[in-house]
Specification:
This is Gcp-like domain-containing protein. It comes from Candidatus Shapirobacteria bacterium CG_4_9_14_0_2_um_filter_39_11. Pfam families: TsaD (PF00814). The structure is a single chain. The protein has 3 helices and 2 strands. It is mainly α and 90 residues long. It has one domain.
Length: 90
């Protein structure tokens, strides 16, 4: 994971790192991620309680909220409508 993190940092040049998901329950992974981030001068953010370490849906929701605020998905939220029969196959 640290190799992939280092590669992602080099490619995307983020301003900070946010760790999420069940994998961050592992203290060694958190420590190693912080080491990699510090080599690039980046801050690492981790949920304040272990109760949130396994809640990937919450992390995805937070990311989606920020993207929606930027208008990445739809420009006018009032025009948003559901598509109950949407197919996921080409």
């Amino acid at each position: 994971l640290t190799i992939k993190l280092k590669s992602a940092i080099e490619i995307y040049q983020p301003k900070q790192i946010v760790l999420g998901g069940g994998v961050i329950s592992n203290i060694t992974i958190r420590r190693e991620a912080r080491k990699v981030a510090s080599k690039f001068g980046l801050r690492v953010f981790v949920p304040y309680t272990q109760k949130l370490f396994t809640d990937n849906a919450a992390m995805v929701g937070v990311c989606a909220w920020y993207q929606a605020q930027r208008g990445d998905f739809i420009k006018n939220i009032t025009t948003l409508d559901r598509q109950p029969n949407l197919s996921f196959t080409p």
